[in-house]
Amino acid sequence: MARWAGRLGLELKDLVTSGRISPETHSRVVDLGCGRGEAAIFLAKRGFEVVGVDFSSVALSEAREAAVRAGVADRCRFVKGDLTASEIPGVEGPFDLVTDLGTLDDLQGADREAMARTIKRLSGPGSLYFLWCVFHDGNLPLNLKGILLRLNPKLVPGEEYDLFGDVFKIERLASPPPSSYFASFLMTRQ
């Protein structure tokens, strides 16, 4: 299965189905690292206007086809772009909601900082940023999951504040639990 497959986080789904995030309050969405468009299509089906951005032409083609099949191609647009660039042609903020399901944590160093600048540039006062990521300090058990997680990029505790604390109020959501070595955050732009 390709890395961009299966990017609809249960935590994002819960925020939308509970009404905490709604198209009435946060109608304009950009999904960064959208892959095959699962999250973008889910949101478009619920009335959001969504722009998905990814670097993979293959994933974007699959996303466009899936949006047509789902009947949401009129509310869901997909753009090829570099999330670390100073601008992404065809993607103009501010957006009411920025989503990232496992993209920021794939980047490291200057690229991660550049993507954080993109998120800030695409958001405005009152915007929400939903982030799902691998999240741990590297102190993992010596089992298969621990070994695999050590090999993958991650955010370390505190890094969310280093990257976004200057302009976002940061809330760590209860799910996934800390024992999973993953995290989801809902951040509000101030």
Describe this entry's structure for a reader:
The protein has 190 residues and is an alpha/beta fold. The protein is 31% helix and 25% strand. It is built from six helices and seven strands, in the order αβαβαββαβααββ. The protein has a seven-stranded mixed sheet. Helix 4 (109-122) links the parallel strand 4 and strand 5 (123-134).
Task: Compile the SSE list and pairings.
Blueprint: H1 10-17, E1 28-32, H2 38-45, E2 49-54, H3 57-70, E3 76-80, E4 95-101, H4 109-122, E5 123-134, H5 144-151, H6 159-164, E6 168-172, E7 182-189
Parallel strand pairs: 1-2, 1-4, 2-3, 4-5
Antiparallel strand pairs: 5-7, 6-7
TL;DR?
By secondary structure, the chain is α/β, with parallel strands linked by helices. Helix content is 31%, strand content 25%.
Supply the helix-strand structural class: alpha/beta
Q: Count of DSSP helices?
A: 6
Largest sheet: 7 strands, mixed
Question: So what's the overall shape?
Answer: globular
Give the integer mean of the pLDDT values.
92
Order of helices and strands: HEHEHEEHEHHEE
Entry keywords:
7 strands, disordered N terminus, single chain, 6 helices, alpha/beta, 190 residues
